Amino acid sequence: MEGVTSARSIKTVKKMISSARSSAAVEDKMAFYDSWAENYDQDVAALDYHAATVAAKTVSCHYSGERGAAAVLDVACGTGLLAKQMKQFGFRNFVGIDGSKVMLEQAQKKELYRDLKLCFLGEQRLPAETDSFDVVVICGSLSVDHVPVRVVKELWSVCKPGGYVCMTCRHGEDNLGYVAALERELMQMEEDGLWGCENVSVVDQWSKAVTGSEDGYISGSVYLYRKRQ
Ligand SMILES: C[S@@+](CC[C@H](N)C(=O)[O-])C[C@H]1O[C@@H](n2cnc3c(N)ncnc32)[C@H](O)[C@@H]1O
């Protein structure tokens, strides 16, 4: 994303994101993403947002199968930044899901997905067959007022045995309670024998901070789990 110039100042982008964080209603959240869709790619480039790049690299480092054929489910795909990154590592077979119709329209324009589906995660069941994807990725969306932690079990469910589930989570101060709940769930699922942890990495410069009281960069994590055979 380097080299892309935002049409809007970072201050404007931060103000817009902070205003949306005050609403927890899913309809409001999706309306916010509908209104952001057109400027999203440029704005997150200005915020130096690394989640999609880090997630794609993490999957690529661990995936040893035939990439072109691997079925990848991009959950909360937004405008399709993750598929764009994964394509550079040889992945070609993407299905995207998101709750924002306009974000999906932007993703469609990238011509990378064989299917795109509208779904409000947490309220509606993930629209995918059990044991059907080689890789399931959720990037930039496991956070407070976005995708609830309980959806992680659904990500696991639609992944094939032996397949990978890759998740990212930002460490903004408003999200620390969510990070703790997420990590409890990931560990519990490992203790229950559902999957094994392949990699957890913390990235210091995840993106520029967007909440009022934070400055500079926030950190974030990428988690990679492999479903038991
Ligand atoms: C920060 S964007 C991340 C998009 C993309 N994965 C990326 O990394 O650029 C968050 C996305 O999650 C979607 N989203 C948030 N909560 C959702 C929910 N409960 N159900 C479905 N989509 C949701 C939004 O519509 C938005 O496209």
From TrEMBL:
- A Pfam family matched in the record: Methyltransf_11
Q: Indicate what this protein is called per its UniProt record.
A: Methyltransferase-like protein 27
Instruction: Kindly list the GO molecular function terms attached to this UniProt entry.
Output: S-adenosylmethionine-dependent methyltransferase activity
Q: Where is the Methyltransferase type domain?
A: 73-166
Alphabetical list of InterPro entries matching this protein: Methyltransf_11, Methyltransf_Superfamily, SAM-dependent_MTases_sf
